[in-house]
Amino acid sequence: MTIRVFIDGAVGTTGLEIRERLDGRAGIEQIILSDKDRKNAAKREDALNSADFVILCLPDDAAREAVDMIKAAKVRVIDASSAHRVADGWTYGFPELEPGQAAQIAEAARVSNPGCYPTGFLALIRPLVRAGLVPHDYPLSVNAVSGYSGGGKNMIAEFEDAKGATYTETAFRNYGLTLGHKHVPEMTKHARIVHPPIFQPAVARTYRGMLVEVPLPLHAFTRRPSLEAIENALREAYKDSPIVQVLPSDVTAVTIEEDAGTDRLSLRVFGNAETGQARLVATLDNLGKGAAGAAVQNLNIMAGFEQTDGLVL
Fold first, then answer.
1. Of 167, 109, 153, 73, nearest to 302 (Cα)?
2. Which regions in the chain score pLDDT beneath 50?
3. Which of 31, 83, 111, 116 is catalytic?
4. Architecture of the domain spanning 116-288
5. Is the CATH number of domain 3-114+291-303 3.30.110.30?
6. pLDDT tens string 273-299
7. Which of 58, 94, 139, 247 is the most exposed place for a label (fewest CB within 10 A)?
8. Does the annotation count 116 as an active-site position?
């Protein structure tokens, strides 16, 4: 059986990465519009409705408009934007997040791809909240750094186009200083926590890669978990995953590029047992498990392929 896939937004950063993972794969026929036809509303609408699977790689408003254009009941949608990550009627596309999540994705008609930052945060925190090791009402914070490709074509130009008006040579900058980042509701809902985490994102002068860190003052918890208990809970949560790995904490540094160029997600637990403090660290590629790799993994699950087909692990 061959499935027909249309990537709406195929020439954007994420869309190109998805195409690369699908090109040449048996059982997949891509619907590809020319530059001219992409701007033709009728041709685009036809592609949206003639595909078996549509992957949306668009800004949020455009993604919502695209969904409204899909009238054919057979079309199943994976939305890589943030438009539907907390919306009713959409299945959250993080197969490893909960027991049974992959089975829900397999049957879903509408799947919302997780955000890159939330992927790291949720992978670290959700199993611990579920196990009762981290109180669901504890005020968490998350520090994260992304490669500049996470900002799409405009941010890529800022860091690469030396003749452009917005060009910068900065090595590192933070943003989201008013604590209203659009990923926060997603983190809060899917971690099943009471309070929105204090989210401190930043961008570094590297094209791709991501490091997400959650500090935990274990001494402040009523029931203080050990570092071993935290690591064991993560290992148990991901013991059957071919994509999420829990690594030993026997390194002295972790870099943003550690999983760049792959579709892996790596987790580590660092800390000081005497002071009762922990540092949970996730690394991933913002364009891999943080975007295109996750979309392809979800497509594989929905279409009945091996979930790792086309992925770089």
1. 109
2. none
3. 116
4. 2-Layer Sandwich (3.30)
5. no
6. 999 999 999 999 999 999 999 999 999
7. 139
8. yes
